[in-house]
Amino acid sequence: MDYSARRKAQGQKTEEAILQAAIALFRDRPFEQVSVRDICRQAGITTGAFYHHFRSKEEMLLRGFGPLDRYLEKAMEAHRDEEPAQRLLALLRHYAAFMEEQGWELVGQYYQHRLSEPDWQSIDPSRYTHRAMQSCLEALWAEGVRIPGRTPEWTSDFLLRHFRGVVIDWIIRQGSYPLWPKLEGDYLLFQGFFQAEE
């Protein structure tokens, strides 16, 4: 492994240590009561190392979720040739996996922090997650499989709001159940509303 690859790997390891330290601290205290110094002490790094990776505690929190779209886009490459309904199921499975990898504590802090921002958008239609879901639904509609009286845009917005609600329930229950079986069960229920046109 060359020098730049080693530096990159070390940087990723340090970022992971910072996020894991923050998660551990957020289990006991709210976001506002955890300082950068607390996180550094827990991670065993200097504050300089923290600021080398993150400009602020807020950026650390938001960056913990910035990779969601990249994670999903990469994961979905393996499902490119599947039927639209199966691609949609895979998208939800990978979404659940990402959230569980982050942990309910960090996900909860993320939503709590975002809700305090007045300019927060609930669902940004330009993000990969939204576009991928809508693309699956548009393909279903093109095949004549649809929810009568609804558009792919309306349906993707509805599904995203619902599944985000499941994640929030999972947070409220402190990750006491695996997220994927809930999302899968709800998706299969919604799938029953789709009808093939005669």
Number of strands: 2
Low-confidence stretches: none
Helix content percent band: 55-70%
Q: Give the spatial strand order of the biggest sheet.
A: 1-2
Strand content: under 5%
**Alpha plus pi helix count:** 10
**Rg (CA only):** 19 Å
What is the typical, i.e. mean, pLDDT?
Answer: 86
What is the SS-derived class? mainly alpha
Pattern of helices and strands: HHHHHHHHEHHE
What characteristic shape results from the CA principal axes?
Answer: elongated
Largest sheet: 2 strands, antiparallel
The CA-CA distance between the termini, in Å, is 59 Å
Structure description:
With 198 residues, the chain is an all-alpha fold. The chain has a two-stranded antiparallel ribbon. The longest helix is centred in the first third of the chain and has 24 residues. The chain is elongated.
